[in-house]
Design goal:
heterodimer; A: 113 residues; mainly beta; 6-stranded mixed sheet; 11 strands; B: 112 residues; 7-stranded mixed sheet; 4-stranded antiparallel sheet; 0% helix; 49% strand; globular
Chain lengths: 113, 112
């Protein structure tokens, strides 16, 4: 099946710093999502971005499908940004894309005040 | 809209007991999914459904069964719980192939 690798695995930053999280995937995808799992375990949708660039406030994401990677940018970090960020994909060639998402292991982000 | 809801939020079972987790969505979504999340890991797919009356196996289906008798509900059953099934279970749904998935709040299950 498709492989998803996220880097870095852990990241500790001071409030106000910027960060870039990376997601590499091993096959063509027709679905790519970024999630934030907050300290209470809730999964929050950040972006649905199988290709292209999107921005939402301090967050933006870019997926270069032909090169099989996606980047999540967080600017002016706040303590509430702490948590685990997951990239999840669905392979174009697996179940027609119906069979769910394959998750990376996540980037654990800690924002210190 | 309540979105995706899960019942119960927490449960403790003894080895060999059975239980059913309920997922409900009020968005009229066709596709529904059950995942499990173990410590330090991403989510892994257990079973999924592409419409009312259909189910299919995911990556880690052993020890679980599912049913989708109504479009808005997706049930996950454990017939004989084992300690290896201690995990957090997430349900998700989406409108169709090229739409994003939305997740429920999760059910924390402990099997002793």
């Amino acid at each position: 099946g498709i492989q998803v690798e996220q880097s870095p695995p852990d990241l500790i930053l001071q409030e106000g710093a910027n960060s870039t999280l990376r997601c590499n995937f091993s096959d063509s995808v027709n679905n790519l999502q970024w999630f934030h799992q907050n300290p209470w375990g809730q999964l929050i949708n950040l972006f649905y971005i199988p290709s292209g660039t999107k921005q939402n406030g301090r967050l933006s994401a870019t997926t270069v499908a032909t090169e099989r990677y996606s980047l999540l940018y967080i600017s002016s970090s706040q303590t509430t940004d702490s948590g685990v960020y997951f990239c999840a994909v669905a392979s174009t060639y697996s179940g027609g894309g119906a069979d769910g998402l394959t998750f990376g292991k996540g980037t654990h982000l800690i924002i210190q005040p | 809209n309540a979105g995706v809801t899960q019942t119960p939020k927490f449960r403790v079972l003894k080895t060999g007991q059975s239980m059913t987790l309920l997922c409900a969505q009020d968005m009229n979504h066709e596709y529904m999914y059950w995942y499990r999340q173990d410590p330090g890991m991403g989510l892994r797919l257990i079973h999924y459904s592409v419409g009312e009356g259909t189910t299919a196996k995911g990556e880690v289906p052993d020890g679980y069964n599912v049913s989708r008798l109504k479009k808005q509900n997706f049930l996950l059953g454990l017939e004989s719980a084992a300690p290896s099934q201690t995990s957090v279970y997430f349900c998700a749904s989406r409108k169709g192939l090229h739409y994003e998935q939305y997740f429920g709040p999760g059910t924390r299950l402990t099997v002793t």
